[in-house]
Amino acid sequence: MGHLLQLRPDVHRAVAAHRAPRCRRGAHRGSVFESASLPGAGSYFEPTVLAGVSPDSRLAQEEVFGPVLAVVTVDSDDEAIRVANNSDYGLAAGLWTSDLSKAHRLSRRPRAGTVWVNCYEEGDLTVPFGGYKLSGNGRDKSVHALEKYTELKTTFIHL
Fold it and tell me: Contact, 135 vs 89, CB < 8 A?
């Protein structure tokens, strides 16, 4: 595939070849498969919505990293938090509400490195980004990212 800093189409194809079957498997496990019919060739995977996904399915439990929305239906805020936290991953979470009090209350509860309220994929270089659990160790962006490149030393001197 070549050096990682020299991204070429064959690198993209290798990644897509690994990810696309994982995305498509969700459609064959009781989910409703809705996909856009966009023209494309090669390693393109269309934006896809999978409705009726079971909270215990691999699609709900693993990070897909594709243009896929897995819809898990819940009956309450508490159930939504339980489902969201019942995963080995925790990169990010999003919630939508017009109730600001609910936004403050619920945004504390997901075990995720970032929680977006009424938006998704927001951020800039001054704000740390990283996940909880298997979604990462440490933070990218901001001054917090520099901690990866430092080592602390404590020295005691008796005079």
Answer: yes
65: left (phi over 0), alpha (psi -120 to 50) or beta: left
What's the predicted TM-score (pTM) here?
0.69
| pLDDT tens by residue, 36-90 | 555 555 656 678 888 899 999 988 898 877 788 889 999 999 999 999 999 999 9
d(CA 138, CA 129) in angstroms, rounded, equals 9
95: left (phi over 0), alpha (psi -120 to 50) or beta: beta
DSSP assignment of 65-98: -SSEEE----SSHHHHHHHHHSSSEESEEEE--S
Rounded CA gap, 82 and 76, in Å?
A: 10
Query: What is the per-residue pLDDT across 98-137, written as a single tens digit (0 to 9) for each?
Result: 999 999 999 999 999 999 999 998 999 999 999 999 998 7
